[in-house]
Structure formats: C-alpha cells, structure tokens
Amino acid sequence: MTVHLLPDLPTRIKRCAHDAGFDLCGIAPVCDFGELHVFPAWIADGKHGEMKYMEAHDEAGELKRASLARVAPWARSVVVCAINFNSAHPYSTQVRSEDASRGWISRYAWSREDYHDAILRRLKQVEDGLRGLLDPTGKWPLATANLRFRSYVDTGPLIERVYAKYAGLGWIGKNTCIINQQLGSWLFLGVILTSLDFTENELTPDLPAPDRCGTCTRCITACPTQAIVAPGELDARLCISYLTIEKRGDIPNELHAGMGRHVFGCDICQDVCPWNRKAPATSAPEFEPREGLVNPALDWLAEMQQEEFREVFRGSPVRRTRLSGLRRNAVIAMGNSGDRKFVPTLQKLCADSDSVVAEHARWAIATLGQES
Ligand code: SF4
Ligand code: SF4
C-alpha cells in the first residue's frame, strides 16, 4: 500500500527526535551499501573472534547483518538517532600520575542508567510521534495500521554505523566510529526501521556526511595492540574492547601488555581523535558517571564478590563481561601497572576459586617480579 507522505515529514520526524532528547537524527533508505559488502569477508577471516551473534544467518544461509533488505523485506527506511554521552572528565590518554595505577572503564559504560533503556525509551517516543504525524487526529487508524516500525539499540539485524553514515549523522572514521563534525564520536546510536518509503514519495533523502579523516592516522598509530589493521577495519581479536568485554576465559599472555590498565573497553582510538578534542559534554543526566567508575581502584575490582558486582553494576553494560571477566581484567591491569603494592593481593588471588583469575594473578606476579 502506498502511503502519501507530507513533504515536511522528515523535518517533523527530526523535530520529534530532538524533542525526545536526541542530538542528531537522519533518515537513510534501506540499500545494499558498499560498506556492507566487506562484512562477509571480515566474518570469513574470523576477525569477529568469538562474537557468534555476528555470524547469524537467515534461512537462505546469508549473513543477517549484511543485508537488511533480506532480513526485514518490509523495511524501506531507517530513522537513525544519536545522543551524545560524553561527560566532562579527562580522557584515558590524559592520565594523571595518581591515576596511573588505577583501572579504566570505557566512557560509554559509566552511565547511571543502562544506555539501551535510555535510548529505547526515546526511540519509542519518536515512534509514537511518527504515528501521530501520520494520523494527527487519530481518526484514521487504518492509515497507519499497515505501517511497520521496529526500534533497536545494538540488537537489530543491521550495522548501525553504516546506516548512520547514510542518514547524514557523520562519517565512519578510520577507527570505525561514527564521527560528527560538531559532536565528535561519543555517540550512542538507536534506529527505527520503518516501512515508510521516503524515496517513493520523492522526499529528499539525507546525504552521507563527507569523510573528514583526511590524511590523519592518529587512531591507527595510537592503538596499543595494532587492532586497526586497515583504515576503518578492526581485527576484533586484537582489540582491547573485545578482549576485556567479549572474550571469555583466558586471554593469551602475548596480548596482556597491550591491554595496559583497561578493565572494560578501551577509548584510546577515540581519545586521540582530533574531532573529540572539543567534544561537548552531554546534557542527559542519565549519562553522568556512577560513583567510582572513573579510574576505578584495581584491587577493589579484582577482589569484588558477586553480590557487590550485582549491586554496583546493576543495569550497567559492565555486566556483559561478568564478574569473572572483570576480575581477570583487573588482575592483568595490576600486572601491567609496574606497582608492587599489588603483590600481596595478587598472592591471595593465586588461590582464588576462579581458576581464570588465579592463572592471571600468577602471570601478574611474575610480570611485576621481572620489573623489580
Ligand atoms: S578500542 Fe583500543 S584496542 Fe580497540 S582499536 Fe581502539 S585503540 Fe585499538
Ligand atoms: S584519529 Fe584521525 S584518522 Fe582516526 S578517526 Fe579520528 S580523524 Fe580519523
């Protein structure tokens, strides 16, 4: 069924997104974009590591994330919204001497509220607004009954940053993040898939933002594990974010040193990006940091018990690494700290009931011993 859209509908949708608290909003058509063509080869090379969800296939055996048109044949457009989560705290690369022996949790994971909930709530508001725009009097429910909308935060069968680019929110930097010229790259993305066809109605689609990385290669040079294997291409198996969040069990010894003091995620390739130098702080209170998560004490994390983990990280993305992963990461960071004050704690942890924590504690003691 063809739905005739008001010419100013895209502008009104963006106003709805702004009213819901989003900083950016754009609309991209569902297309077979060039960036999606490299995804199957990336998966085939195994560069996604153990992130099995990325390998999800449809009934025809095709990768779901490679083609939205196959997975959601009803979808014609994607409304992409973004919100700035930056807060006014120094970057991980601006380490003060008193913080050198403390850990680092990625900036996006500091928030008071789970960002999935915070974004989804706003997307639902935009979705409702959109329905209201299509049937302002509520007298024509049939006009909107056949229209479909699906909102996603991280969980949709699409590569959000590709759609964010074609919705005009920013370009995909060499560090693989969406970068907006005014806001930088500290952005949470949310998408609404919709059966509304803007091009069929001859409404001007948003244009992709031009690439402004230019000759800069700061992120590639600064990455401590050489995980950016080509401009815009990550080998997740080397990336600290993957190792500290997605990787279960042992982390190979040869990768420990590069992990530095990171206990959950890594911000280095964004911290060094010139487009983040003047990134503004968010006005959304739910993205203000929880207490204790900026430069957290490593021994606190390494000795944390399940009950405290549940309490401290309730509704936090940090839960994804689970208690065992967080303690393992803290122990590796202790080994990398060069600070022998951690030795008594590590000695205790060598007998920990979690064999992964115990194994990495032995590595950390050996590493600190070599440095003395
Ligand atoms: S997140 Fe860290 S490890 Fe991963 S690519 Fe960026 S700088 Fe490298
Ligand atoms: S650091 Fe430079 S190359 Fe990397 S994403 Fe930022 S502008 Fe692009």
Q: How are strands sequenced across the largest beta sheet? A: 1-2-7-4
Q: Any idea what the radius of gyration is? A: 22 Å
Average pLDDT works out at: 92
Summarize the helix and strand pattern as letters. Answer: HEHHEEHHEHEEEHEEHHEHHHHHH
Count all strands and give the number: 10
C-alpha termini separation: 74 Å
Largest sheet: 4 strands, antiparallel
Low-confidence stretches: none
Structural class: alpha+beta
Q: Tell me the helix content.
A: 25-40%
> Helical region count?
15
Ligand inventory reads: iron/sulfur cluster
Strand content: 5-15%
> What general outline do the C-alpha atoms trace?
elongated
Please explain how this structure is put together.
There is one protein chain. Helix content is 34%, strand content 11%. With 372 residues, the chain is an alpha+beta fold. The strands form four sheets. The chain has a four-stranded antiparallel sheet with strand order 1-2-7-4, sandwiched between helices. A two-stranded parallel ribbon has the order 3-10. A hairpin with a 5-residue loop joins β5 and β6. α1 runs antiparallel to α4, α13 packs parallel to α15 and α14 packs antiparallel against α15. It is elongated and about 70 Å long. It starts with 8 loop residues before the first helix and ends with a helix.
